[in-house]
Amino acid sequence: MNHFDAIIIGFGKGGKTLASTLAKNGQHVAMIEKSAEMYGGTCINIACIPTKSLVHQSNERKLSSASNEDFYKNAIEQKDGLTSFLRDKNFHMLADAEGVTVYTGTATFLDNSTVQVTTDNETLELSADKFFINTGSSPITPAIEGLKTADFVYNSTTLQQLDQFPDKLVIIGGGYIGLEFASIYANFGSTVIVIDSSPMFLRNEDRDIAAEVKKVLESKNITFIVDSKVKSVENRDGGVVVSYQAGDSDQAEVYGDALLLATGRKPNTEGLGLENTSIEVSERGAIVVDDVLKTTVDHIWALGDVNGGPQFTYISLDDFRIVKDQLFGAGNYTRKQRNNVPYSVFIDPVLSQVGLNEKMAKEKGVAYQVVTLPAAAIPRARVVQQTDGLLKALVDPDSQKILGCTLFCAESSEMINIVRLAMEAKLPYTFLRDTIFTHPTMSEALNDLFAVSID
């Protein structure tokens, strides 16, 4: 049996960064990754990077005279080339590093200190002083009649592998993943129908923001059917038919060349053999961890999506920072110190948010004042010909600190990070109002957004 200082299960952002750090500190590390197609983790191979490649390519569609089929096929090829390059780069980053051994195989815990690794060629047992689980998450498949036998059904991973352009795309799920794919494929030229069980569109967003997003997406030939329950799925006429019931209405049908299931993601714990350990798992299948990411076994940690936290690559990286501080630092940084986590939904234009929106502020009983700015008022938005959208922020009328910000506009994924920095530094809103930004940029819109008197 081979013994290591540390065994990391899962080649994701937190795990791979930790492996490199441990090795540089003289530790002997084993990195176990289930699939050779997942070196580098979910983000590089099936999530952030490939989808944003498709976002970029779909935004370029209007500049091309190629057919939808040819343009889409080329976009898939470019996406595949990018992920292949990054996957190879990430593999060699660890495989070629002194002190790191990469195993491609399935890891199963035999007890709290031993895992069995099954590769294509052998089965072996490894032990370690410390274990780090970084296995990510995977799409949830809902229980829908006919789904298992229907063709042309995809999840967020497999749809990206489809090189045949779908003229008609049906999406089950109106969350952020569903909306990103709806925007991507509508820009490619697909007719898109989104069926969502929620009683209202983007129910967690403020109504003015949600209304603006819906208006923009509907202008792209996207139809939204809310408050609906999908009853069944079946093959028909070389495609797939989805039967659904909207509210109290009669059952209806929609046809698509492809069906995307965008119904959420679940932590990847199946097959890990956690039942052979003292590791506790939550009702939702996530590994239970404390504020420093330790599991219920003192020498085992869980990082990233698998611990049930926000499903973002940058959270996995921040999980690494917490663990690094525990192992090599003062041990002061914990999940309690992680505040104002921003996010961006890469629809067109991008929807970004940090801190509180009005809905959350009202629920918490927090006093606030609202400031808004239409994207059309921003010179840069007119330069790039993307004037759709709305900028909105909440300010504490007493402290004058920014409570939260929602930006639905071009380049908001960059702008939101500026707002987050001001919030983390506990600066008053006047800091952004009076900051000197270059011109013409989207960032300078923060001058105008906060150009008000807060009473």
Can you give a write-up of this model?
By secondary structure, the chain is of the alpha/beta class. The chain has 12 helices and 22 strands. The strands form 5 sheets. Strands 1, 2, 3, 4, 5, 6 and 17 form a 7-stranded mixed β-sheet that branches. Helix 5 links the parallel strand 9 (168-172) and strand 10.
Computed structural class: alpha/beta
- Fraction of residues in H or I helices: 25-40%
What's the average pLDDT? Answer: 97
Cα(first) to Cα(last) distance is: 69 Å
What is the 3D form? globular
| Alpha-carbon Rg, integer | 24 Å
Biggest sheet architecture: 7 strands, mixed
Work out the strand percent.
Answer: 25-35%
- State the low-pLDDT regions, or none: none
Number of helices: 12
Number of strands: 22
What keywords describe this structure?
7-stranded mixed sheet; 5-stranded parallel sheet; alpha/beta; 455 residues; 12 helices; 27% strand
Describe the protein's topology:
Layout: E1 2-9, H1 13-24, E2 29-33, H2 42-46, H3 48-59, H4 68-95, E3 100-104, E4 106-111, E5 114-118, E6 123-133, E7 137-139, E8 153-155, E9 168-172, H5 176-188, E10 191-195, H6 207-218, E11 222-225, E12 228-236, E13 239-246, E14 251-256, E15 258-261, E16 265-267, E17 300-302, H7 313-328, E18 343-345, E19 350-355, H8 358-364, E20 369-374, H9 379-383, E21 390-395, E22 402-409, H10 412-424, H11 429-434, H12 445-449
Parallel strand pairs: 1-2, 1-6, 2-3, 6-17, 8-15, 9-10, 9-15, 10-11
Antiparallel strand pairs: 4-5, 5-6, 7-16, 12-13, 13-14, 18-19, 19-22, 20-21, 21-22
